[in-house]
Design goal:
The complex is a heterodimer.
Chain A (H helix, E strand, L loop, with lengths): L9 H17 L47 E2 L2 H12 L19 H5 L6 H18 L3 H7 L10 H16 L5 H14 L4 H14 L1 H4 E2 L13 E2 L2 H13 L5 H8 L6 H12 L2 H14 L22 H18 L7 H4 L2 E4 L1 H7 L11 E4 L13 H6 L8 H12 L27 H4 L1 H5 L1 H15 L13 E2 L2 E2 L4 E3 L2 E3 L2 H9 L2 H16 L8 H13 L4 H10 L5 E2 L4
Antiparallel strand pairs in A: 1-2, 3-10, 4-5, 6-7, 8-9
Helix pairs in contact in A: 4-8, 6-7, 6-8, 7-8, 10-11, 10-13, 12-25, 13-14, 18-21, 23-24, 24-25
Chain B lengths: L16 H11 L31 E6 L6 H4 L5 E2 L17 E5 L13 H7 L3 E3 L7 E3 L4 H9 L8 E4 L9 H4 L3 E3 L2 E2 L6 H9 L3 E2 L11 H19 L4 H22 L3 E2 L25 H16 L5 E5 L18 H7 L5 H22 L2 E2 L2 E2 L4 E6 L15 E4 L10 E4 L5 H11 L28
Parallel strand pairs in B: 1-11, 1-14, 3-16, 6-11, 9-10
Antiparallel strand pairs in B: 2-16, 3-15, 4-5, 7-8, 12-13, 14-15
Classes of the chains: A mainly alpha, B alpha/beta.
Chain lengths: 572, 466
């Protein structure tokens, strides 16, 4: 309030817009990494800081230039809440279906979950859900027996109640209860359950499922004397961090036992648990969530394309596209010993009847079942960028979009940021007219090239996408564009390519693509955007990823067993 | 069954006199709540106010649509009362006595992205990047409906309601998906399912004149655990940083809201309050796969109107479509989403024009739903102040000057209804200032004042104030 009132004049508004425009376009010249992105200048050779932890019986130390990001609470996402509840109450419980969805920040739900506040509606929904779940938990004798095994018949005596609170509380809070917490829940159970102890048990379930100690993860560690590089997580906090990353749910009993026994205090012990979790089906589910967020697969639930223009469009096609992308990811990430970059240029993929028709493949039976197929070696369709999930997902309702396709490759694969068009600039491209007749995308996008305001950013996107013009807005191959010849020869940062196959090979060899995978997994795992102090951690991970043949599993293990994984910054 | 509050008063908000009376009458019963008979002695003879002198409630609402209008074709042709609609306001021609149009205002807190004003016009503050990915912009302040929710909604069952009609803009960035923000990083997810909205509002609720008493056996149990939950929250709060403390404070206030609701009688004694029908199935797409907004809006408007009439809430934000709306309107040839068309359709943009007409018609649906419910000597609408606007003046250019702004409702005589006012270059924050004060929020300033920007106002727009 200390500033004298000052009218914002029209001219200063204009100046502001012009300055912002210069800034926006400045970001599109040269290296387009965002300024605070530690990956920006770090690709390529990295400082040797011991990328893989030592195989000693202790925890390795972090490099001198590492500093952890500030620590934030991480709210359970909708899927983490659901899976944790099932871990607590059994797979058979019915979860209310109306829980609020999670938005994404910086590409990931996990980042939003450590950033955004909780809305009144969500807290209200969590309360209703907790009530319904607590009712199910004590609804029948078998349910009661499962929840409180020590109960005999209708009776829950004092020691049994105490045992229930201790074990249920430990699973829910992912650590042993403090004495104060244990007493708090016991008092509640006894007061509410004065005449009916099962009502007391239900009250504990109802309270715990709404407790911020359950709904938020606090992995803040503790300050260790003589150690100035952040706080160090205890075994239980590590167990949570590991489990939510690799399984998208609360630690299982075995992991809590390992934490209790101090097994996670050593690098070897942590690695044993990480490997155990990675072999579980839940790891695939969790990491497929990573793939879905990275590749924007949620968009496919409602394809914008118009049936009248695309006879092959069906109500299930978007879901089929999503499945293909996830199956391909799962294959490269989890089956055999793939180089993760194979995703870009593999001819192996998965199709069902409608995808086979879209791709023009013969010999695939009609129906929803997916078959693994090898695409023809004609250089046309291969890898991630040959999948309809990408091609249709980055198109308009009636036409392919070279710009959007280029933007996706820049942002999702190269981790390069493209700012939105500046305000007051018309983004209208002149439509075909009687004078011009039908024109190809290359002809229409020529305007982006001619206008310097547009060119700064569009030069980063349009050329890449124009190399994919042989795929229509749904991802079908086309030899021409409405009768006009398609010129799909183009360039990626001044290196020419003539086909998707050549583009895929170019991308595969780009160090930014490897570093981008690391950065994305990092955000997904740790729930925050990388900070400059964490650059050594990221550099180690990328080096380890490369040194291990770009195997995705190796990256996950390197991330979780790195000394920095045990660290947290000051609470902020 | 009988439970005791473990730590009475921890969460309780200051009661208002009328409800104290109701609660006092019931507290002897302790655990269960029943519907009350209509206490006619509590109303004055004309029904315009409660007998204890409290006026009928004031309500504040926001109606938001995406991608603006075509300003030159939208603006009324005459000033003052009985304004003559421009061609894009024709769908509201029958409501010109209800709707006030304010033309020419500018959003002084618009930013560098053509659509972020969806947040800034409602928060009075600039939006900012919250990550180094360009789509992740968030506001820097709460939206003004939330300010009103705290001031005038605190004693109702729902401090505010957020509703959405069109599909959410998946992954366009969090800024565009939300209309209401309870803080810079706290978007409020709107309710989009009419059945879920009905259940949320009316499950266990009984209009006072509605017959059989309702007994909800779960209320006492639910109330009994809230103190425990709060103690857990406080313990966690003591061991986190300042930003997390703010998040937990929000969480706490939402727990308070739950407790307040559990403590309220599940009935209301207002004349126009009656239990609506639970919504059934409805169409939300046509054969061409285009989105039908009308059927959902119709249902949501009816439920909202009754929620207001029953005083379940006094503040709402209805998002017809979000900023950068990706809606494909049910119009022949509308083969792109609206946002794309605003940029791609050449010339006079006949398709975009038709979609704007539909947006205006949809606003009329809401206004009519509210004006159709009698209250006091007039209608429910007379005791509302509703701002209808968009995130830009024109989608094609992202223009932030000459914003499309409509007001509906007289705010119990505090606002002029049915006039066209021109306020060229004026700060839209003045309008918000007027609305907030018209409904009794008693603000002395609104809008951003920072090193970079001065958009703060300390007075309203006199020409719309009665």
């Amino acid at each position: 309030m200390g500033f004298p009132p000052k009218r914002l004049s029209a001219s200063s508004g204009f100046f502001g817009a012009a300055a912002a425009l210069a800034l926006a376009c400045g970001a599109c010249t040269g290296n387009i990494e965002a300024p605070d992105d530690p990956n920006g200048a770090q690709v390529g050779p990295v400082a040797g800081t011991g990328g893989t932890p030592t195989s000693s019986g202790t925890a390795g130390s972090v490099s001198a230039d590492f500093a952890p990001a500030g620590a934030r609470l991480r709210r359970l996402t909708r899927s983490q809440y659901a899976s944790s509840v099932k871990r607590l109450l059994g797979e058979g419980v019915t979860l209310p279906g109306d829980l609020e969805e999670d938005p994404a920040i910086a590409g990931y739900l996990s980042v939003a979950a450590s950033t955004l506040g909780v809305s009144e509606r969500r807290v209200e929904q969590l309360e209703s859900a907790a009530l319904a779940l607590s009712q199910q938990a004590v609804a029948s004798s078998p349910a009661r027996q499962k929840l409180v095994p020590c109960a005999v018949g209708a009776a829950v005596d004092a020691p049994c109640l105490e045992h229930f609170v201790t074990t249920f509380g430990r699973r829910a809070l992912r650590r042993p209860l403090t004495q104060v917490e244990r007493d708090r829940y016991l008092v509640l159970a006894k007061q509410v359950g004065a005449s009916d102890p099962w009502l007391g048990v239900q009250a504990v379930v109802l309270a715990v499922l709404q407790s911020p100690l359950f709904l938020y993860r606090r992995e803040f560690g503790a300050v260790v004397a003589g150690d100035s590089q952040g706080r160090v997580l205890d075994g239980y906090e590590l167990a949570s961090r590991l489990s939510f990353f690799l399984e998208d749910t609360s630690p299982d009993d075995a992991l809590l036992e390992s934490a209790a026994a101090g097994k996670l205090d050593t690098d070897d012990g942590l690695k044993v648990e990480a490997e155990r979790l990675l072999a579980l089906p839940a790891a695939r589910t969790s990491l497929k969530g990573f793939a879905a967020e990275t590749l924007h697969l949620a968009n496919l639930a409602a394809l914008p394309q118009i049936a009248g223009f695309f006879p092959l469009l069906t109500s299930t096609l978007g879901e089929s596209m999503r499945s293909e992308a996830l199956l391909s990811f799962e294959n490269v990430a989890f089956e055999g010993e793939h180089d993760f970059r194979d995703l870009l240029d593999t001819r192996q993929t998965y199709v069902n009847g409608e995808l086979a028709r879209l791709y023009g493949l013969s010999g695939v039976p009609d129906g929803a079942a997916f078959l693994q197929v090898t695409l023809p070696d004609d250089g046309r369709r291969l890898g991630l960028l040959g999948q309809a999930a990408f091609l249709a997902g980055s198109s308009h309702a009636s036409s392919a979009s070279a710009t959007r396709r280029g933007q996706f490759i820049r942002e999702a694969l190269l981790c390069q940021a493209i700012p939105p068009p500046p305000p007051t600039v018309s983004t209208t491209l002149p439509d075909d007219s009687v004078e011009t007749g039908h024109r190809t995308a290359r002809q229409k996008l020529e305007l982006h090239r001619r206008d310097a305001t547009c060119a700064a950013c569009h030069a980063q996107m349009d050329p890449i996408g124009l190399g994919l013009e042989n795929f229509d807005a749904l991802g079908s191959w086309r030899d021409d564009d409405g009768g006009l010849a398609i010129d799909a020869s183009s360039e990626l940062d001044s290196t020419p390519f003539k086909s998707l196959k050549e583009l895929a090979h170019l991308l595969r060899e780009r160090p930014e693509v490897t570093a981008c995978v690391t950065r994305n997994v990092f955000r997904f795992a740790l729930g925050h955007q990388e900070t400059p102090g964490e650059a050594p951690y990221l550099a180690d991970l990328t080096a380890s990823f490369e040194a291990n043949g770009h195997r995705f599993r190796a990256l996950l293990l390197a991330l979780t067993t790195h000394p920095a994984f045990r660290r947290a910054g000051e609470p902020e | 069954m009988r439970f005791h509050r473990l730590c009475s008063g921890t969460l309780r908000s200051p009661p208002i006199p009328r409800r104290t009376l109701l609660r006092g009458a019931l507290l002897g019963g302790g655990a269960t709540w029943v519907a009350l008979p209509l206490l006619e002695s509590m109303l004055n003879s004309s029904g315009t106010a409660l007998a204890d002198g409290l006026p009928l409630p004031q309500r504040l609402g926001v109606f938001f649509w995406g991608n603006g209008v075509h300003p030159a074709r939208w603006k009324p042709k005459t000033l003052g009362a009985n304004w003559t609609p421009g061609e894009q306001l024709m769908p509201l021609a029958k409501l010109t006595d209800r709707i006030t149009v304010v033309s020419g205002m500018d959003n002084w807190t618009a930013g560098t992205d053509g659509h972020e004003a969806g947040a800034s016009i409602l928060t009075g503050h600039h939006a900012q990047l919250i990550s180094n990915s360009p789509k992740n912009i968030a506001p820097t302040f709460e939206s003004f409906d939330q300010l009103a929710a705290r001031k005038i909604g605190a004693d109702t069952r729902f401090q505010s309601l957020q509703l959405r009609i069109g599909r959410a803009n998946v992954r366009q960035g969090i800024l565009y998906d939300y209309t209401s923000w309870s803080g810079p990083t706290s978007p409020i997810e709107p309710e989009r399912d009419p059945v879920a909205l009905y259940d949320r509002l009316f499950t266990g609720f009984q209009p006072a004149n509605g017959g059989t008493p309702v007994v909800d056996q779960t209320l006492a149990l639910r109330r009994s655990v809230l103190d425990t939950v709060t103690e857990d929250l406080n313990a966690l709060r003591a061991n986190v940083g300042a930003q997390d403390q703010a998040r937990l404070d929000e969480h706490f206030s939402h727990l308070r809201a739950i407790e307040r609701r559990l403590d309220m009688p599940a009935s209301e004694d207002r004349a126009a309050c009656s239990l609506p029908t639970r919504p059934g199935a409805f169409e939300d797409k046509n054969a061409a796969g285009q989105e039908l907004l009308a059927p959902r809006l119709q249902l949501m408007s009816q439920l909202l109107a009754m929620a207001l009439a029953c005083d379940l809430t006094r503040v709402f934000a209805l998002q017809l479509t979000g900023a950068v709306a990706l809606t494909r309107y049910p119009i022949a040839g509308f083969d792109q989403d609206q946002h794309q068309l605003t940029h791609d359709e050449p010339g006079d943009q006949p398709l975009v024009h038709q979609s704007i007409l539909q947006n205006m018609e949809h606003f009329g649906t809401l206004v009519s739903a509210l004006s159709g419910i009698p209250e006091g000597t007039g209608s429910l609408l007379d005791h509302c102040a509703i701002l209808a606007t968009s995130e830009c003046a024109e989608g094609r250019s992202h223009a932030q000057k000459d914003f499309p702004i409509m007001l509906a409702g007289g705010a119990s005589g505090k606002l002029r209804q049915g006039v066209h006012v021109s306020a060229p270059g004026e700060n839209t924050n003045k309008l918000v200032f007027s609305l907030l004060n018209a409904v009794g929020c008693a603000v002395t300033e609104f809008g951003e004042q920072s090193n970079l920007h001065d958009a703060r106002v300390t007075e309203g727009l006199a020409t719309i104030e009665a």
